[in-house]
Design goal:
Helices cover 0% and strands 49% of the residues. It has strands at 15-22, 26-30, 37-42, 53-62, 66-67, 74-76, 79-81, 84-93, 96-100, 104-109, 124-128, 134-138.
Length: 139
């Protein structure tokens, strides 16, 4: 958890967390008010050091995005690389669906029968993630 709790408003499509561990091409991030400790590849240089706050974009490819009726917002597993996501659509940004699953995740549909514009903010969706979720730090 981030201490003290952040009060600054940021773009709701940006993820906010704390760097738990980092190497030149990978980062592990913990997310405030959750038990999540997720691993990502890096798409650019990492400026934040372990133990410091970080803001950025989580990107991944979704196998097929399905609209669901029940359940909650979550990422599976709690520790490690992202494999399953369920949450509410926040926005459509370019060719990606931004899903609030405890943290905003930018998901690109890979099923040829789907495109991001098929979904609307407020839709409740779930999907399996392709390997290779990435993180891009923003200031």
């Amino acid at each position: 958890m981030i201490h003290p709790a952040p009060t600054t408003r940021i773009d709701p499509t940006l993820a906010r967390g704390v760097v738990a561990d980092a190497s030149p091409d990978r980062v592990t991030i913990e997310f405030p008010n959750t038990s999540y400790r997720l691993d990502f590849s890096l798409t650019g240089p990492l400026r934040a050091a372990p133990g410091k706050r970080i803001i950025g974009i989580i990107r991944l490819d979704a196998r097929r995005i399905d609209t669901v009726d029940t359940g909650g917002r979550f990422v599976e597993p709690v520790y490690g690389p992202v494999r399953r996501v369920q949450g509410t659509v926040l926005a459509i940004v370019a060719d990606r669906v931004v899903v609030n699953a405890g943290m905003p995740i930018h998901c690109r549909p890979t099923d040829p029968r789907q495109k991001a514009s098929d979904f609307s903010p407020g839709d409740f969706v779930g999907f399996d993630a392709m390997p290779g979720a990435s993180f891009e730090e923003r200031s």
